[in-house]
Amino acid sequence: MPKTNPYAAGAAGRCPVCGEGFLFEGFLKVAPRCEACGYDLSRHETGDGAATFVILIAGALCAFGALFSMFAWNWPVWLLLVVWLPMTLLACLVLMRPAKGLMVAAQIANRASEAGRDDV
């Protein structure tokens, strides 16, 4: 069995351990278990980490695009809002699932776990 790249599998929405089963149960809900290898995925939660990266990346791209279109083509404010607000929402939705998959894959690849009282 070839070794699976956990980061590529996580970004694709597959189990980072085997690369076969689905990582998500819904749009962003991590599945409780991999249906292919049986790995317990419920222990891995990303919290707001993926959303932070998505906001920074999508915000930078869309803010640059809005400023460029405002100064290069002299768009009025209403047109900027009509074009760039949906673009920002679309960019966030497109980036969120791969980002969350990468965060779960990073936790699995680095064998991360929550710190307990004895670990502090």
UniProtKB/TrEMBL annotation:
Keywords: Membrane, Transmembrane, Transmembrane helix. GO terms for molecular function: ATP binding. Its main location: membrane. It is found in: Cell membrane. It is a multi-pass membrane protein. It comes from the Bacteria. Pfam families: DUF983 (PF06170). GO terms for cellular component: plasma membrane. InterPro entries: ABC1_TM_sf (IPR036640), DUF983 (IPR009325). The chain crosses the membrane at residues 50-71, 77-96. This is DUF983 domain-containing protein. It comes from Caulobacter flavus.
